[in-house]
Each structure stands twice: as C-alpha cells, then as structure tokens.
Amino acid sequence: PTDFGTDKKFKILSPEEQTELQERAGQIAEGKLENLIAHPKYKELSDEDKAKKIISITDKSRVVARAEKVQELVEGLEGDELRAKLKELKTSGFLNKEVYDTWADIF
After folding, report:
1. Cβ–Cβ contacts within 10 Å for residue 103, how many?
2. 60-87, pLDDT tens digit by residue?
3. Is 64 exposed, middle or buried (0-12, 13-18, 19+ CB in 10 A)?
C-alpha cells in the first residue's frame, strides 16, 4: 500500500511531501504486513485480533514515516534553529510525543 486514505493532511508539508510521507508509510507497512500475514500464528487469530494487529502496524508505520520526515526537515540544523523548527513542527501538529520519541530513538 502506498496511500492511507484517512491519513491526516499536515499543512506544514507541501502536497508532494504529503504524498512522499504516505508512500513511505505504505512501504514500511507493506513489509511488516507481509511478515505478519505469513506468520503461522496469524492464521489462528480471530478476525478482530487480526484487524487490531494490522491497525497497530499501519499506525506505527505512519509514526516512523513522520519521524523520518522530521529528520529530513531538521537535517543540518543546530541550537536555536533546531529548537525553532521542532517547535514549528510541534505547533503544526506534525510532531507529537510519539513521533518525537520515535525520532529520538532512531536518530
């Protein structure tokens, strides 16, 4: 999947960046979902539990994609410039605690 129809639209991103974000989240989710569905225990789950697993993977994929985009947007910034950009991303709603924590863990 390369598009999540219900994804939030972030005004801080251009339409092209929004598309890139959705595509990246789809790429991340695709591999994880393939592994999930191929796992023997997945077949034993109820439909409700399968749906929960899929939603969890797609949600986490979106968070990771946003964390990667944060890194792209702050690359090369330091000190006050970095703080200002992070504040802008937070104020816009793009950078929340979950995205920040993921960004901090990855980068």
Report:
1. 21
2. 999 999 999 999 999 999 999 999 999 9
3. buried
